[in-house]
Design a protein that fits this description.
309 residues; 2 strands; 1% strand; flat
Length: 309
């Protein structure tokens, strides 16, 4: 009597079904990613690859490019001006980041305290964020005009001789920092305000019952629970700080005497003023490496001080 043979194709059919489901899932994910993946490839990844190739050439945007290998990187590394523009950029970040964070935190705390008309105030404070940088820079250039500016006029009422601001090499970068912080305060405020509103009020009430004052609650409860929002603000602000350009271009053009010449301004000048697109591309990749390194360090370090949940 012949024994029934178990169907040998069943495992393969099950495996084929699983592969089919995975393929359908992958195609579904790809379909949803395409609307953003296509412009990302065309306008970000493609130009980055193109800039990497240009950085290995000598090209003035007019004549054919000549391959020179890593000569542009070696030249920039040995050029003292490269160190200067990076130092100017770091100087900008060192002044901008604390100012914009402390100012944004103060506004967020005030609006979170239940002020009347806080929705209106939130819109007013956020208005500079959506205003064109060129407009903001020109307004602050007028406000900080050494001879006819509003700021020096107000200081004169108190018997204080105002500085030269953007015309003085010592005050040009602080002028840009003030304008930048003023414009970005609203963005930082909104992020930190969202973080404040997500804090469980029972924790603050418990700290208050235990006798903790306002400052104690701020440093022991609020800021630790606000650390995810703080981390996001710091990462975004540092990336934007390394790429500072619009306000420098509109307010000082890198002057006076190169006192505000930052990395992106140098990239612009190398490309369009000196016809050294290869060096400009190499400098842009050097900037990318610095920003990437700083961001990776922050992501690794956030495990030590960022509190989630």
């Amino acid at each position: 009597m012949l024994e029934p043979i178990a169907p040998a194709t069943r495992p393969s059919v099950a495996g084929s079904t699983r592969r089919s489901r995975r393929a359908k899932y992958a195609l579904t994910v790809l379909a949803f990613m395409l609307p953003s993946a296509i412009p990302l490839t065309l306008f970000v990844l493609g130009p980055m690859v193109g800039a990497a190739w240009v950085s290995l050439t000598e090209w003035n945007l007019l004549s054919p490019a000549t391959f020179v290998g890593f000569d542009n990187y070696v030249k920039l590394w040995a050029d003292p001006e490269t160190a200067d523009v990076f130092l100017h950029t770091i100087y900008y970040i060192a002044g901008y980041l604390p100012l914009v964070y402390i100012g944004g935190l103060a506004l967020a705390l005030a609006l979170n305290a239940g002020l009347k008309g806080r929705s209106f105030l939130r819109g007013i404070y956020f208005l500079p964020v959506v205003t064109s940088w060129i407009v903001v820079a020109l307004v602050w250039r007028w406000l900080l005009n050494p001879s006819t500016g509003v700021v020096n006029s107000v200081l004169g009422w108190f018997g204080i001789d105002g500085p030269g601001w953007w015309t003085d090499p010592a005050w040009a970068m602080p002028s840009i920092i003030i304008a930048s912080a003023w414009k970005d305060l609203g963005f930082v405020m909104v992020i930190l305000l969202a973080g404040l509103q997500a804090i469980n009020t029972e924790l603050l009430d418990a700290a208050r019952v235990d006798g903790a004052g306002w400052w104690r609650r701020l440093f022991s409860v609020v800021l630790p629970l606000l650390s995810p929002s703080t981390f996001f603000v710091i990462v975004i602000s540092l990336i934007n700080g390394f790429q500072v350009f619009d306000q420098v271009y509109a307010m000082t053009g890198g002057g006076p005497g190169g006192a505000t010449q930052v990395v992106v301004q140098q990239i612009y000048d190398l490309t369009f003023r000196y016809g050294a697109a290869g060096e400009a591309s190499a400098l842009s990749w050097m900037l990318f490496a610095v920003v990437l390194g700083v961001t990776v360090i922050q992501i690794i370090g956030q495990r030590r001080w960022v509190t989630y949940g």
